[in-house]
From TrEMBL:
It comes from Kordiimonas lipolytica. This is Cytochrome c domain-containing protein. Keywords: Signal. Residues 1-23 form the signal peptide.
Amino acid sequence: MKNRFNKKLVTLAVSSLTIGAVAACSSAETEQAPAQPAEQSIAADFAFQNAVSAPPPGYQGPVFQLSHDYPTEDPGQCPQSECPWLYIDVDFTSGVPVNWEEGPWNDYIMAIMSVVVRGQDPNMPNEVGFRTKIDGETMWYHVPWMAYDPTAGREFAHGTTNERTAHLSDFIGSPMPNATMLQSMSPSCQAQFPHGFESWAVGMYNKWGGYALGQAIPDTGEPALTTLEGQTVPKGLPFPEGTMVTKFLTTNATPECVPYLANSAVWLVNRHEVAPDRQYLCQRALQETRLTQVDVAVVDERSPTRWVYGTFGYSAEADGDTVLARLVPLGLQWGSDPNTFPAVTAQDSQPATESVLNLDVGIYEHWGCASRLAGPVDNPQSSCVSCHGSAFAAADGAISVMGTNVPPSFGFTGICEAGGSPENAAYFANYPFPQAYPDPKYAGAIPLDTSLQLEVAFTQYATFANNGKPTACTNPDQF
Ligand code: HEC
């Protein structure tokens, strides 16, 4: 019951700031309590709590508020003013390699960014963070159930999460560890951070995405399922055209270690402390973290997967007077290139045609597997669309375990190496919603239309429903 207790503290701590939202929350609780079985109102409590723990006494900084007043009416076709990228002439099916300079790619990704930055403070200072309300209107919605897991769940300052739900001891040494090295680190820096850097990120959906989220996880906090083309799927999915998602990623790397982070936004987030030997611990404290990457994803029916993913990297060297102006577009990806290594053998491989990389960047390594797109803090053996395509929930309400009852999003033995292996062929395939993951091993898994935040949410709900409590955080063995 620790979480419920903490949640009450969060509510108290923020009540003076966000009276409207808190009132909406507690009235839902009190209205539901008599009519619903007790478990349901507890599910809603956990689903929509703001953070895994409350701010410490005397904390004066920003307090994250989960934006979950999802639209209940279909927002309809997205107009040019809201989705300018949908009105740019673009061909995602040419089947030939494309380059950044020749084509509408820069215009496309900058059109997305122009909407992301609307109403935001251009320097993203700690006190402000990312605004979900602009001029009093809610523009952005968060995914519920991401403040349940004490290891990686949302922290109270900016609502960031530590990428994936795992035990801290798994972070190091797994095929795709959570803490990674960044490019252009000096050797002394590597010695200072032998366990790499942690990435804490916060993602939000626009109105079109929020409309789908609210149906997939309604007020009860329990995922709602339906059947589509013979598949069990969450209600409200697929995300409608017009959906846009953005994710702000921060790193605990310092500018001394990674010079291109100089003068980036510095946020104080409640993240893992480090042991004397620099391993990351369960214990959390408010510590600095810097904006390094901004990811975007949109539903565009012209894409063979219906999705287009894109990413920006922060660069101290870029022209621009503000933090947001120094975000450099790195590339776009609209498919996993199923005819390119390692989906096929090196012999059969054709050049990649479903990613376009901005090569005129210099400082960043942002190649994923075999010329596909990945971000600077992503694993170079994967790619945006390949990893996101593998977003599934376990069948029959089971707790998901990647590689067992849901696809191995974070990798498997031989990823990006064993060309043509069944695992690589499945991981680098295109299979739009609601198709099953191409590996029959995961036949019953529920497709989540590329939303890995929804995968976290479904896993956390299943943990709650099966165990009644979140999985405890475990420290690494030795420090
Ligand atoms: C190896 C896996 C992996 C790769 C590669 C990856 N991501 Fe993600 N991404 C995740 C996970 C896990 C989450 C959800 C957890 C979180 O945000 O804490 C996520 C969340 C997101 C979200 C929020 C929407 C959602 O899915 O719930 C966006 C947008 C996003 N990523 C974009 C990108 C882009 C753009 C790239 C490539 C530049 C990329 N991702 C590469 C694993 C990956």
